[in-house]
Design a protein that fits this description.
- The chain is α+β, with helices and mostly antiparallel strands.
- The chain has four domains: 216 residues, P-loop containing nucleotide triphosphate hydrolases (Rossmann fold); 112 residues, Elongation Factor Tu (Ef-tu), domain 3, CATH 2.40.30; 109 residues, 3-Layer(aba) Sandwich (Rossmann fold); 124 residues, Translation factors (Elongation Factor Tu (Ef-tu), domain 3, Beta Barrel), CATH 2.40.30.10.
- The chain is built from 14 helices and 32 strands.
- Strands 2-3-4-1-7-8-10-9 form an eight-stranded mixed beta sheet, with helices on both faces.
- Strand 25 and strand 26 form a beta hairpin.
- Helix 2 crosses helix 6.
- The N and C termini lie far apart (75 Å).
- Function in general translation initiation by promoting the binding of the formylmethionine-tRNA to ribosomes. Seems to function along with eIF-2.
- InterPro entries: EFTu-like_2 (IPR004161), EFTU-type (IPR029459), P-loop_NTPase (IPR027417), Small_GTP-bd (IPR005225), T_Tr_GTP-bd_dom (IPR000795), TF_aIF-2_arc (IPR004544), TIF_IF2 (IPR015760), TIF_IF2_dom3 (IPR023115).
- This is Probable translation initiation factor IF-2.
């Protein structure tokens, strides 16, 4: 157990660092670690699994005069290394976000990018307090770097021009935050951090502004989260799975962040699994060796117990079905059934509503699966099956059973296609979409569906009989019958060859024959448009007996085609075709009101 003398029951706040892929998330964490190490206390900073614990003394050493350690009774900060992507920020702890506080890293030159928007969305949904790190201030033209200094001291060393350019970029970011519904300002101007988001200009490269970031994080945690940091130091441990990993000699292990109580070697734990909660006994608790020993063969050392907040690797049997984002609970002096129910209840909150048909969704963690499901619900895309994990052969088999072609799709967020599923995918009629930006993934799918529908409509349109209304011109009978050849003018619609034509006697349609040719200025054509004059050959009628010069004739539209045109393809046909269709339907419906409905 770590010695919490001055903070008897207060745990370390958990800090998640999120942001767009190349805006400097990793380098910021490295800088914070690096400066902590260079404070000459390599032993003080402990590497956890998936997390870095920086004690208060080290932080106050780095922040210099910005922090008076006696103001704080929190033990320090635990920075979580978000696996792969910020999807981590949707990892949960008891219905809320696992992170107590977040740092949103934004490149000061680049402003908000798709993943920034997405991270903001998640922070808004989970209500997680956050600070914005406006990174890469050192790339401002003419910048004069002040290694590791607080940002205001660094600003004093800049030319007016450099400072003006930086301010312009900073205000751009403040504006983007405001567009996203957050009132924000440079952190030293913020009076109330509960109402306003503080923006900290910094450089992960030169360390400028990093002291300020740590100060703001400590201050925020101390002021607004003290109650939440109060934990039962000796109680049964609770945590969240970060990642499931195979380790040589241990099999499947879970990298876990413990946010309450204590986990001990030998404890019986319940872990959220893909089908059922997993009940198992801890065989080993592993943490990285101290920084100076990291070169040794064995990268982990076994520990007897871990108290919150901490990252630890748990080795235990039967963990291969565990899920990233799932709860971990120590059973200790409670009925096992109760703990299993607790885990089930927590997982049920994340249950995704599935339909009888829809797409297959795979995501890297429960949190991102939940975020995907929310986004798909908003886009009105039904889900057939949603699971955590890489894309396996059975996902392809399930996707293939979808009733509609556009649902034969798999949407994978931040997951891989397993090698044994590659050939299945090639041979299956299933479309795979993968991306690590949720809304990009959904946009790609929606574009695909739109294109598919358009292509379907175009094929349908090719086969559908188009409506037309045309008039036999006076003095334009070139042949009376077998076939009758007359000159006509198309009033509205499209006259297509080989269609049946007829005329209305009152409200009764009478077929007079079938077109066997259309000629325009002596050339054979397949169709004629509204306004054109052409000569047509009609098999069947005799001019002067069945049809007369001056008659208005119509293309006969079969009822099924009229229904498709009116209900599905109305937007795809021209205005004059719509007009011809409407007139045709009106006349037909005077006799039978339900015709073509």
């Amino acid at each position: 157990m770590t010695d919490h003398t001055n903070a008897d029951t207060l745990r370390t706040p958990i800090v998640a660092v999120l942001g767009h892929v190349d805006h400097g998330k990793t380098s910021l964490l490295d800088t914070i670690r690096g400066s902590a190490v260079s404070e000459g206390e390599a032993g003080a900073i402990t590497q956890h699994i998936g997390a870095t614990d920086i004690p208060l003394d080290t932080i106050s050493g780095m922040a210099g005069e910005l922090i008076d350690p006696t103001d704080f009774d929190l033990p320090g900060l635990l920075f979580i290394d978000t696996p792969g992507h910020h999807s981590f920020s949707t990892l949960r702890a008891r219905g809320g976000a696992l992170a107590d506080i977040a740092v949103l890293v934004v490149d000061v030159n680049d402003g908000f990018q798709p993943q920034t928007e997405e991270a903001i969305d998640i922070l808004r949904r989970t209500g997680t307090p956050f600070v914005v790190a406006a990174n890469k201030v050192d790339t401002t033209p003419g910048w004069n770097p002040q290694e590791g200094e607080p940002i205001q001291r660094s600003l004093e060393a800049q030319s007016e021009r450099a400072e003006a350019m930086l301010n312009e970029n900073l205000y751009e970011i403040i504006g983007q935050l405001s567009d996203a519904g957050f009132s924000a300002d440079l952190y030293w101007r913020v009076q109330d951090f509960q109402k306003n988001i503080g923006v900290v200009p910094l450089s992960a490269l030169t360390g400028e502004g990093v002291p300020d970031l740590l100060t703001v994080l400590m201050g925020l945690s101390q002021r607004f989260m003290k109650e939440e940091m109060a934990i039962d130091v000796e109680g049964p441990g609770e945590g969240t799975v970060l990642e499931v990993k195979d380790e040589r000699g241990f099999g499947a292990t879970i990298d876990t962040v413990v946010y309450d109580g204590v986990i001990r070697n030998g404890d019986t734990i319940v872990v959220g699994g893909q089908n059922e909660p997993i009940v198992t006994e801890i065989r080993a608790l592993l943490q990285p060796r101290p920084l100076e020993e990291i070169r040794t063969e064995k990268q982990f050392e076994k520990v007897a117990a871990v108290g919150a907040a901490a990252g630890v690797k748990i080795a235990a049997p039967d963990l291969d079905q565990a899920m990233a984002g799932a709860p971990v609970r120590v059973v200790r002096d409670r009925p096992l059934e109760d703990v299993i129910e607790e885990v089930k209840a927590e997982l049920a909150e994340i249950e995704v509503e599935t339909a009888d048909n829809g797409v297959v969704v795979k995501a890297d963690t429960l949190g991102s699966l939940e975020a995907m499901a929310n986004a798909l619900r908003e886009a009105e895309v039904p889900i057939l099956r949603a699971e955590v994990g890489d894309i396996a052969p059975r996902d392809i088999a399930v996707a293939e059973t979808a009733n509609q072609d556009e649902h034969k799709a798999i949407l994978g967020f931040n997951v891989d296609l397993l090698a044994n599923a590659e050939s299945d995918l090639e041979n299956a009629d299933v479309k795979l979409f993968t991306n690590d930006v949720i809304y990009q993934l959904i946009e790609d799918y929606e574009t695909y569906v739109e294109e598919k529908q358009r292509a379907q409509q175009e094929t349908v349109l090719d086969k559908v009989v188009r409506p037309s209304r045309f008039r036999i011109l006076p003095d334009h009978t070139f042949r009376q019958n077998n076939p009758a050849v007359v000159g006509v003018e198309i009033i509205s619609g499209t006259l297509q060859n080989n269609r049946n034509v007829g005329l209305f006697e009152g409200n009764e349609f009478e077929r007079v024959g079938q077109l066997s040719g259309i000629q325009k200025q002596g050339d054979d054509v397949d169709e004629a448009r509204a306004g054109e004059r052409v000569s047509i050959a009609i098999d069947g009628p005799t001019v002067g007996r069945d049809i007369e010069e001056g008659d208005t004739l119509w293309t006969e539209v079969p009822e099924k085609h009229a229904k498709i045109l009116e209900q599905e393809l109305k937007e795809e046909i021209t205005a004059d075709e719509r007009e011809a269709l409407a007139a045709y339907l009106d006349t037909k419906r005077k006799r039978d009101p339900f015709w073509g409905k």
